[in-house]
Fold this sequence. Notes:
By secondary structure, the protein is an alpha/beta fold. Helix content is about 50%, strand content about 15%.
Amino acid sequence: MNDISADxxxxxxxxxxxxxxxxxxxxxxxxxxxSAHEDxxxxxxxxxGRLLDAIExxxxxxxxxxxxSRAxxxSRAYDCLRLRYVSGFDVDDVAxxxxxxxRQVYRDLRxxxxxxxxxxxxxxxxxxxxxxxxxxxxxxxxxxxxxxxxQEIGALGARPEPVHVAEVVQSAMDIVAGLAKRRxxxxxxxxxxxxxxxxxxxxxxxxxxxxxxxxxxxxxSVSNVGELVVLLTDDEDRASICLPAPADGGSxxxxxxxxxxxxxxxxxxxxxxxxxxxxxxxLRLPLAKRRRVLIVEDNPGxxxxxxxxxxxxxxDPVLAPHPRLAExxxxxxxxxxxxxxxxxxxxxxxxxxxxxxxxxxxxSLPVIICSVVNDPELGTALGATACLSKPVSRxxxxxxxxxxxxxxxxxxxE
Length: 414
């Protein structure tokens, strides 16, 4: 048997919710029973389940002999593992939630990944020796299923963030696509033309939708249906995700109720509606608050690029084509962050940055330098929150904006 390394485990964890990458990663090839699945989505689902089971084995059980310091370290490593890979937070967010430094998070993750590799190796060894007699995993600490679910919900600890709902719904549909194909059912997402941005934890939403869709596809209500439609809508303050009502009895009903408990714990409402095509279940999520970002940029092409980047996000761009207008626009438009170019014809960005940071009205405004001139040490010394080099990607811009507003504030109107 090929040795399962911590690097292979880390690679799989990083793409746990990207089925095609998960199915083709090194760990999938190293586990014979996983690689035996010919269907890509089935292989990804099987490996994801194996990883989540192994992570659960690492859940600390109090009172079993470890010293207090070692128990605390193991508990923190487990929390790092779940927050980073199951809930999808980046390392800085994990560090803030656990009140530790980023370096400590990296150390805990490396230790936890080694432990996961060891768990997977030992289980694979047992499976190869006794393939037909391996016992089913029991809930950690001997807990009853209901208690275990309550512990899972409590451990999620996911913080809402602005999320492009259609992308999460589509990723959940991709996960169950193999099951839908086996049942002879087409999946379709019906969504509005404009983006729907909700405030939620994307990993949790994906898990809830995957459970519900799986229950719908395995139930009797869709046995003669050729197409399963998921409807996404929004009104003034809520996003709605509607799908055929899943089964409400037996093991499928148990899974459905578990998913709805998770949704309820996240503050989402769940409603059953009667529609012409049958009973539907609708999840209602709060819409993300619209935010304004000041773009101090005199290149029309670059501003147009930023507009495209921000179109499917919670951000509304406010253009300051003349640098001298930056402070006044930041105050009157009540922006929450600013993206600043350095090389402009009317005034250089360094002067604009100093002006914003010297003014009592805008000194707390997060400023992100985005320029071909890459001097982050000077930028941060002058008060910039972050520095990005052009050309900047959409992902990098959105991630930096979200991180910046967590640390900054709005300009004052005083």
